[in-house]
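Human: If only I could read backbone structure tokens as easily as an amino acid sequence. Take your time, and here it is.
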Amino acid sequence: MPPSDDQKRPAFIRSRTRTFDYTDGISDAGTRSVPVETAVNIVYAPVPFAVMMATPQDLEDFAVGFSFTEGMIDGVDDIRDIAVEEDERGLRLIVSLAADKLQRHLARARKIAGVTACGVCGIDDLASLPQVKRRFSGAALRADAIAAALGQLRKHQPLSVETSATHAAAWCASDGTIRAVREDVGRHNALDKLIGHLLRTKADPADGFVLITSRCSFEMVEKTAVFGASALVAISAPTSLAIERANAYGMTLVAIARADGAMVFGNAGEIISKVVTGEITR
């Protein structure tokens, strides 16, 4: 795959502002950093597949992770090449697939109308929702590892520090050491970028857990499970379908994770440090 040229594309810009409060009115003009949001057309050459609104960095990771979690590929070796083309309306992320995977894609003929909140919006009917095809035995997580990861996370989020407007997905070792982080304006994009990086670096899904800064919705559980990680920690709350899906996978789902504690949802694996295990009633 070609080396990344993401450094040519800024992840944030400075926007002119005028600050005001509700009592005293408008004060001095200034500027503020805001994240770049770009339309990224994912093309499985030669057929366009999806338009996602994303931050234009780590695009090769995004291509790999998205292709994997959407079922286009079974592994990195199924991608022959990745190219990025500029367009006045956005970017084209052109992914060249192995012949058999391209044929599989063409047979599916699925289209997605992409937005930053998109999860499974290209599915034609409810029967087409992804089916649970694996079951985890439940990961053993150390409470101090979750706390350690939360304590480190901020320093691994330069774009969030700059803009206060992006999500992050982190890969954490079993002791809570953060190994990799990806950021994006879209929470699912950040996770796809992280998964793409982990696939490209041949990370073992059994060696850690995923930490996300967003709410935990259905597709965040789904993407984590497709990658093969059996534990997901979210800073915000889970949705009902996320809990249901975690139960179906036997995934350890920890959410509302704060410095002083967290909540376990779903089929909890062993949380070492006085946390009761077992299925949580929804």
